[in-house]
Amino acid sequence: MHSPAVRQKGYAAQLAFDRAVNTLNLQEVAPISRQDVGTESALLLKEILDRVGLPPVSQVPNEQTVAAESMTRWNVPGSKITIELVEEGYHAGEFLFSPETVKRLKPFYQAIKALPYNPHSALQIVSQEVT
User: Fold this and answer.
1) Tens of pLDDT, residues 54-110
2) Which CA distances in Å does 69 have to 4, 73, 77, 79?
3) 37-62 pLDDT per residue, tens
4) Could you please report the per-residue DSSP string of 79-117?
5) From CA 129, how far away is CA 131, in angstroms rounded?
6) CA of 87: how far to CAs of 60, 67, 79, in Å?
């Protein structure tokens, strides 16, 4: 039995992970596979971003920039990772990682897994065994 503090941390970690999965556009994934694909994709995306890094927040488009420039997509600099506006379905009007990005995460991870972690990243999650 875990202490209340440990259970609370576990609950908070699960909520954070669920939020990460919810940033993925999984509309093109068969409903029966969405949980598994979402889980694996969120972990792969974190591993990739922990290596290639993200630009400073000041260089990420905010709501005002998106509206002023009528943006419907944005690429993480130095990668083929795309965040795009979902036009229909349950997530219509939201910006999520594109279905194409989700499909490319495994090969992208394989291509960059030998790179060192960004010193500002969190701990390694995906094992060397991911294929």
Assistant:
1) 888 889 999 999 999 999 999 998 888 999 999 998 999 999 999 999 999 999 999
2) 47, 11, 18, 22
3) 999 999 999 999 999 888 888 899 99
4) S--EEEE--SSTTTT-EEE-HHHHHHHHHHHHHHTTSPP
5) 6
6) 21, 15, 23
